[in-house]
């Protein structure tokens, strides 16, 4: 898995994981997110797959940010990831945002 990390002035740090977020790659993203101090966004637009271990990384990052008073958000999740978040109930816990205007 590769990452693009952007710091946008006083805005949140944006991490864009690329590829699959699963048992093999989750520890790398967990370390990356744990190294960020401040508001954090995960741009999910380049994720092809997320399993339960990947969801655990999102929950851990959310809890860490919440403890420190920082904001954590998932941005541009795929329809499949949105469905997974809904099935697990995480859509009620994690802040999820889509910057793309909905059609119609």
Task: Give a short overview.
This protein is an alpha/beta fold and 104 residues long. 35% of the residues lie in helices and 29% in strands.
Throw out a few tags for this protein.
single chain; Transcription Regulator spoIIAA; 29% strand; globular
Biggest sheet architecture:
6 strands, mixed
Give the C-alpha Rg: 13 Å
Q: What would the principal axes of the Cα set say about the shape? A: globular
CATH architecture: 2-Layer Sandwich
Helix content: 25-40%
Class in CATH?
A: Alpha Beta
DSSP strand count: 6
CATH homologous superfamily?
Answer: STAS domain
Q: In percent terms, what proportion of residues is strand?
A: 25-35%
Low-confidence stretches: none
- Please indicate the count of domains: 1
Distance between the termini: 35 Å
* CATH fold label: Transcription Regulator spoIIAA
Order of helices and strands: EEHEEHEHE
**Which structural class fits the helix and strand makeup?**
alpha/beta
Number of helices: 3
Give the overall average pLDDT. 90
Describe the structure.
With 104 residues, the protein is of the alpha/beta class. It has a single domain, classed as STAS domain (Transcription Regulator spoIIAA). It is built from three helices and six strands; from the N terminus they run E-E-H-E-E-H-E-H-E. The chain has helices at 26-34, 52-68, 79-88, and strands at residues 2-7, 13-21, 40-43, 47-50, 72-75, 95-97. Strands 1, 2, 3, 4, 5 and 6 form a six-stranded mixed beta sheet that branches. Strand 2 (13-21), helix 1 (26-34) and strand 3 (40-43) form a beta-alpha-beta unit. The N and C termini lie far apart (35 Å).
């Amino acid at each position: 898995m590769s990452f693009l990390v952007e710091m946008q002035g006083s805005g949140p740090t944006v991490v864009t994981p690329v590829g699959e977020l699963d048992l093999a790659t989750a520890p790398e993203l967990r370390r990356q997110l744990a190294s960020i101090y401040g508001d954090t966004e995960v741009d999910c637009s380049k994720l092809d797959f997320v399993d339960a271990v990947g969801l655990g990384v999102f929950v851990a990052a959310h809890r860490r940010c919440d403890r420190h008073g920082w904001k954590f958000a998932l941005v541009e999740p795929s329809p499949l990831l949105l469905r997974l978040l809904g099935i697990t109930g995480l859509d009620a816990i994690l802040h999820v945002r889509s910057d793309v205007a909905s059609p119609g």
